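Archive entry. Fields below.
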Amino acid sequence: MAPRKTPEKSNISRDELLGYYREMLLIRRFEEKAGQLYGMGLIGGFCHLYIGQEAVVVGLEATAKDGDKRITSYRDHGHMLACGMDPKGVMAELTGREGGYSKGKGGSMHMFSKEKHFYGGHGIVGAQVPLGAGLAFADKYMGNDNVTFAYFGDGAANQGQVYETYNMAELWNLPVVFVIENNQYAMGTSMKRSTKSPSLWERGAAYGIKGEAVDGMDVLAVKAAGEKAVAVCRAGQGPYILEMMTYRYRGHSMSDPAKYRTREEVQKMRDEKDAIEHVRDLLVQGGHATEDDLKAIDKDIKAIVNEAAEFSKESPEPALSELWTDIYA
Amino acid sequence: MATEILMPALSPTMEEGTLAKWLVKEGDSVKSGQILAEIETDKATMEFEAVDEGVMGKILIAEGTQGVKVNTPIALLVQDGETAEAPAKAPESAPKAAPEAEKAPAAAPPAAPKPAAVAVRAADPDYPAGTPTKSMTVREALREAMAEEMRANPLVFLMGEEVGEYQGAYKISQGLLDEFGPKRVIDTPITEHGFTGVAVGAAMAGLNPIVEFMTFNFSMQAIDHIINSAAKTLYMSGGQMGCPIVFRGPNGAAARVGAQHSQDYAAWYAQIPGLKVVMPYSAADAKGLLKTAIRDPNPVIFLENEILYGKSFDVPVMDDFTIPFGKARIWREGTDVTIVSFGIGMTYALEAADKLAAEGISAEVIDLRTLRPIDYDTVLASVQKTNRCVTVEEGWPVGSIGNHISATIMQRAFDYLDAPVINCTGKDVPMPYAANLEKLALLTTVEVVDAVKSVCYR
Ligand SMILES: Cc1ncc(C[n+]2csc(CCOP(=O)(O)OP(=O)(O)O)c2C)c(N)n1
Ligand SMILES: [Mg+2]
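PREDICTED_STRUCTURE:
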């Protein structure tokens, strides 16, 4: 990925920029805290952090309206925070407590919120893609103008069901934005080692689906592309593919030997492309905010995250009777 | 205030690890996010990052120390100007940890071996008495089996996600890429339905693929090819064309990985004519049965278990050690009750047998080892002797292997039974994530003990 040039001279408002800054920072601090709680044994199993990719969900959520739906993989904490789910409930699910979104029964990979139209949290790579198209199918069926964001990884893009879905989604003009979060690795397998397609979004062309690649480390670019995709879908011309070029800074999950890429590669991304630093620069250089303003936000976010962590430790484990509930409606 | 840096949990199943290397020394100042140490877990060597800023006060666990339990203090972090001598939080544990750490690398500590768990152990019938053995983990045994068969037969190859350059998601294939090269150790994209179809096709054309599923949960993406394409071909072609292929990988619950990643497929695959199904418990069985599986001309489902991967057992040192399918192993002879199990279920069965022995109940413990074919004769002979039976498995109760064993005993040994057979299984729910609920969902030794007492009317 080429280093970002200069901060765009933008007509973006101060409030909008500050909003992105806050939301991205919330995700990052939340994830750092989750990593710590994992190390302490408070979170178990798999825990996939979203650090590095924050601009993708934050930029796209800025284009969503009430009623729009989202669905993603196991790397889902950022998506939940960005669509307005309560950090306390998310963290308490990570610790497997009663106060979690799934009462502790789902865990890091499996959370849902009907209220926020968040449809999970899926552990089987690629499964959320046809599910997402199904959500869009329901909206079209009901005759409303809602849009679904179906997020999946560069690795998931090689699953066959993605292409079966593409075919149907275009055939039926489903209002779904396929968001490929191309962080360049699927566990330890780099894009180069899993496909010879030069780009992933172009595969949609075989089915007649429009799309584009986007700098997923630039929240403004993400939002601009998202607006276009959403407009197409709302107008009944969907689906649309957005391939977000992004990067995860941490390991695939907590257990990752990290031997498949160099520390320098990761450091270079952090130094040159970091999405939060980018917005920070825009804020400071554009005279929208002082270092002190940003420090105050940092402090706020820290407090929210600490409160979530406290809640996630104090919330009791689910009652043992919960083992037998929610199996049948 | 000095802060203790604790040994982190770095994988779902990690309880202890090796502190492979310190990347900082006492007196260094560290930033949050800086790599402090390399820690080797059951799965991988990982970098351990600092959470807080400060100065490395004291290193409590020397590099090279093995078996460091999660949450043991490994170092003290102090703020500028402080000394490590004043550990604010833990004046107790810190000084205690240090001498231990110094001892560890020197003399291999006689880790107070528990009195041999399996007291009444039937002789191992799989290799001649007097054969030398060596202690080996299930992981190493599986790797050796694959390597030996790949050396012996150039048509055998391994295919799956992360099996090559990553050295295996669970380190089973570690080193195989180096030895056999990328032609025979093939990394695939994440496309289970696709690569399973490719492997089945290759087997139809005469190659001997080993397909690794990162876990068997993902085999559901490929189950159509396993059943419709692999298992039925010999039959549908009137015997002309078979499918010599092995599907292997971890099966069942690991720890806290939730409903979509914690399922036992033993009963599922055992239902399919045309498949053979193996589910080993010990390392010797893992090795001997995997070698047999690779040589078998049929599609074989080989169900491993993540929790067993790190367990050590004696494995015979022989040029070519194989175990035939359809032969159960009697792990422990007994007279009062027959406990039938397989795979991870054996852990509960053997533990229960120990506890029962202490209470004067003599249990015979049978490991089925292969679920298709099943060694009915060994089970029936045992039940005819003990007149009571309990089955033990991790999977769900409905349509379980235990159900099938019970039905067989009822049909073929009804008159010998002094009590109805009880099936101990996992609970009839998707696996919950919460620690307390997961514990409740899984089988326990106590449940097995209670079931045995119940069939013994005690
Ligand atoms: C069907 C299936 N196969 C394999 C896995 C194991 N697995 C979990 S995540 C992953 C890598 C996915 O990479 P990508 O789609 O790029 O998403 P990212 O983790 O980078 O967000 C793999 C192989 C799985 N969960 N499901
Ligand atoms: Mg990826």
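CURATOR_NOTE: Residues 133-316 of chain B form a domain with the Rossmann fold fold (CATH 3.40.50.970).
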